[in-house]
Records
---
Amino acid sequence: MPERAPAPRPDAPHDGEADEVVTAVLTASRLLVAVSARSLASVEETLTLPQFRMLVVLSTRGPMNISRLGTHLDVIPSTAMRMVERLTGAGMLERELNPGNRREILIRLTAEGRRVVDAATDRRRAEIARIVGAMPPAHRTALVEALRAFSEAGDEPPVAEQAAPARTGTDMRW
Amino acid sequence: MPERAPAPRPDAPHDGEADEVVTAVLTASRLLVAVSARSLASVEETLTLPQFRMLVVLSTRGPMNISRLGTHLDVIPSTAMRMVERLTGAGMLERELNPGNRREILIRLTAEGRRVVDAATDRRRAEIARIVGAMPPAHRTALVEALRAFSEAGDEPPVAEQAAPARTGTDMRW
DNA sequence: CGGCATGTTTGCATTATGCAATACAAATCA
DNA sequence: TGATTTGTATTGCATAATGCAAACATGCCG
């Protein structure tokens, strides 16, 4: 392993307070992942997380071709291809020949696919809402603002070293 | 300890404020997962996320047998078995025959395995710290408290099977 | 038309996973 | 103590997710 020096290090290594924040974030992120997995499992036992992500992309962005679909999921076309085949076989997707361009094929959700997405999404939001509901109300508002600030701060393109698409063990990126 | 609702309603009401919180949480969670994937990829291209999780479990909980290891990762023994084989082949794990009980085998990290875990963990904490550092300081403290309340509200482990946190806190797992 | 770019498929290899069956070892029972 | 049951590890078999490279198909240009 190349001990490549990490480019971004704009902050002091061991600041007690910063450590506290980082730990809080990491802990919360673990909970969030667990919630997602649970919600999905409760709706569709046979659906994997990558498959669910594909349905979600099609649901929120509308029909698109295999390559673009793969791009949204950070996988190469061949992977997207096989996933589409499986989900088509499961009745959740359908392929539509694009009349204007015969080398592209539009992939779209079927009614069944949309049903699954909606059910899982509702379930996840409900689970998160349940957890939030168990928080002291004062913390709820603080959470919204703090998370917004956090998301905003993290939105910036990852400093340097963005070039590599970074090999994908990257599952569960709902 | 906050007044965590003893009987959380299984169905959450969809009032505007709750929706806001849920949306903020979902948005932040996407960012967190992306950060995790990036950090791992930047340290070890050949390591998958499940493999990394296995190393982390062994790092934070110490050596254990295949079955328990699988339990911590939510996979069945055969899956854990094969993962151990691969990671052993990669020089990150080693098997130790248990003298007191010949039907169990202890799996432990090698120095190389520990190095990988530490590097990836440091990298991830650094990335999060970078994001947090870009937040207004006032929001930082609010974030800690709010996330703690959130994690606590959602911490409903089936059993209390967590031993004392062996090392430097933060058993963030993946 | 001929080459280049864009998209889709296939072939091949590896990892992750679950289920079922097997092989041992330890514990329990009759 | 010998037979049965239980706990672990391991192997066989099957499917999904992935990447890379190569084979095709189609659209565009000069």
---
Amino acid sequence: MNRLKVPTESAPATSPGAEQVMFSLLGAAHALEDRLERALGQVGLSMSKLGVLTQLVEAREPLPLSELAARLSCVRSNMTQLVDRLEADGLVRRIDDASDRRSVLASVTRLGEERQAEGARQLAKVREGFTAALPPADRAALARALAALTP
Amino acid sequence: MNRLKVPTESAPATSPGAEQVMFSLLGAAHALEDRLERALGQVGLSMSKLGVLTQLVEAREPLPLSELAARLSCVRSNMTQLVDRLEADGLVRRIDDASDRRSVLASVTRLGEERQAEGARQLAKVREGFTAALPPADRAALARALAALTP
DNA sequence: TTGAGACGATTCATATGTGAACGATACGGT
DNA sequence: ACCGTATCGTTCACATATGAATCGTCTCAA
């Protein structure tokens, strides 16, 4: 699931190091995603799968695939395949929507709920490690900078 | 090429906001990658393709696929396919390595060099936008925090 | 009521990544 | 000189994403 390392540039001699901050951000996120996928892999999940399960658990009711796609910011065809795999794993079931025959609802199974809880624990562990690695003095500035960067 | 949005958590009431910093980082990187892929798409490239072309241009000589995979931190099978597509695009040629018959070298074409230059310009534009969006007061702290985060 | 257009899910083609298995080649120690 | 092992590229199966095209269903305006 990894992203390739970003192309290094032949440094244009402007403010020294400024060009590299963007790549540092990509690299840090990349490394973090690796850790998350590895941790979740230990309980048979991925970030994508955990995302779907978490939505369903939090909603406390079955949700249409369209709604899941919207909440997780992906296209519907992606959700079709993701739910295919979750169904094959026995973590989710498709049920017909009685009120709209176009719609298909995803319903989390008992096993899916258990797996979601395990995944959430793994995720929390990684998050703790992340927070621990963060220089406390820079935490606020990081949060501020990231907020400014996300439009 | 997008990553799904990260699962939101039912906030455990520890230090307020601290849990979310990790997700902010993933989100910011995600948005940034989107912008980069879109900018590169305008010249028919992707981050992965530009990465390969840039390595070849900077090396000023053909490189073995293994070497490219190592430099871009991906597995060799990925490089095989990436070079397949670059070759189909006419940006790269495979040539036999006379000194080691196991090895295959990737050689950037004239068109590939031109495309790399265009890609680098697109990348620089995005980077400028990135830097502009960054609160100057937080730049150093961001760089420091990201460095601490990348092991 | 009906028919045009919006909407929901799926399928297909494609891009990008991983990892295992394979065949060809290289190389070092005996 | 030969054999075991390492390395190289490829192929395959899979996971994850996008976007276009398709098919069924729904809804509203005329």
